[in-house]
Amino acid sequence: MKIERICILGGSGFVGTHLVSQLAARGLQVRVLSHRREMAKALILLPTVEVVEADVHDAHELVRQFRGMDAVINLVGILHEKNIGRVDLPSARRGDFQHVHIELVRKVVHACGEAGVHRLLHMSALGADATSRSAYQRSKGVGEALVREAGLHHQEHERWFLDGPKFVHGYGLNVTVFRPSVIFGRGDSFLSMFARLLKLFPVLPLASAGTRFAPVHVEDVARAFADSLDNPATYGQTYDLCGPNVYTLKQLIETVGSVIGKRRSIIPLGKWPSYFQAWAMEFKPGAKLMTRDNYFAMCTDNVCSGGWPAVFDFQPAALEAVAPEYLRADTPRARYEDYREHAGR
């Protein structure tokens, strides 16, 4: 079946806005679910995009919004949680990660079955592991396992019924899971954050400085999603997405400093100083720069074991080819973005 109508959860986010734009450029009909339509105002003007205010955690609302769709894409994710339960037993934690990365995924899978949607693309994360010490990675691991299980049910049912596949228990899904390394691009929350820190501080004590990353460009992640929609070769597959180059965290920040002309002294911290820096940052009001859960996640390198998936007929962009264009504050486009930010537009 040709996929022409797609419902996206998380479409107003960083990856979502790029993906929606690519799908609209291909002439596909896209429904973006957002708890506030104002948050997706940049997408409203795209000719084939419909932005709908909806509570994505309402199972009945999901079924209603999924009806008539050919595919669903779930991009919803968070990096930090506020409402956590017991911390002494990892399996007993019932915070925001549980709510967003596990319970929502279960509702999405069920709603696809109820609404008759047979294609689901899911955003996980490189390092997702149900046994990880990091609650973020644990919840992502459980969430992607739920999605893969839904796909396995579909394969089993096709073998069992000779007169064609019959879908039961809300499954019957052709699923694809994506596990990107850290994603960079205009509007990212990673390189741009370090650029701001380098402008403020002459010396930067750095936790987990030796952790390795393979940053991948947001446009390449979005294209991988878009190219997978109609490709049966991607059904039931999980793809690790990494850029062409690997950097330690210290090398990444040095690269950012070089691009923006702010070469600073970076002091790598050892294991325990890194932990206590993360612990102290949890008490910072407002947006969190780092938490102990982030520290646990960074105890493992965030790199791919293989190269770029051969199923995608393009190569990912190098960070050095893209980052300078949006990190440098002296370019006309960067100044334009600054004006927009200060104007609240």
Quick recap of the structure?
With 345 residues, the chain is an alpha/beta fold. The chain has helices spanning 14-25, 41-44, 59-66, 96-115, 135-160, 191-200, 218-228, 249-260, 271-281, 292-297, 319-327, 332-343, and strands at 5-9, 29-34, 49-53, 71-74, 119-123, 174-180, 183-184, 203-206, 212-213, 216-217, 237-241, 247-248, 265-268. It has a 7-stranded parallel β-sheet, with helices on both faces.
Structure description:
The protein has twelve helices and 13 strands. With 345 residues, the chain is an alpha/beta fold. The chain folds into two domains: 5-180, NAD(P)-binding Rossmann-like Domain (Rossmann fold), CATH 3.40.50.720; 186-215 and 243-303 and 318-345, Alpha-Beta Complex (UDP-galactose 4-epimerase, domain 1). The strands form four sheets. A seven-stranded parallel sheet has the order 3-2-1-4-5-6-11, sandwiched between helices. Strands 7-10 form a two-stranded parallel ribbon. It has a two-stranded parallel ribbon with strand order 8-13. Strand 5 (119-123), helix 5 (135-160) and strand 6 (174-180) form a beta-alpha-beta unit. Helix 8 (249-260) packs across helix 11 (319-327).
Topology:
Layout: E1 5-9, H1 14-25, E2 29-34, H2 41-44, E3 49-53, H3 59-66, E4 71-74, H4 96-115, E5 119-123, H5 135-160, E6 174-180, E7 183-184, H6 191-200, E8 203-206, E9 212-213, E10 216-217, H7 218-228, E11 237-241, E12 247-248, H8 249-260, E13 265-268, H9 271-281, H10 292-297, H11 319-327, H12 332-343
Parallel strand pairs: 1-2, 1-4, 2-3, 4-5, 5-6, 6-11, 7-10, 8-13
Antiparallel strand pairs: 9-12
Helix pairs in contact: 1-7, 3-4, 4-5, 6-8, 8-11
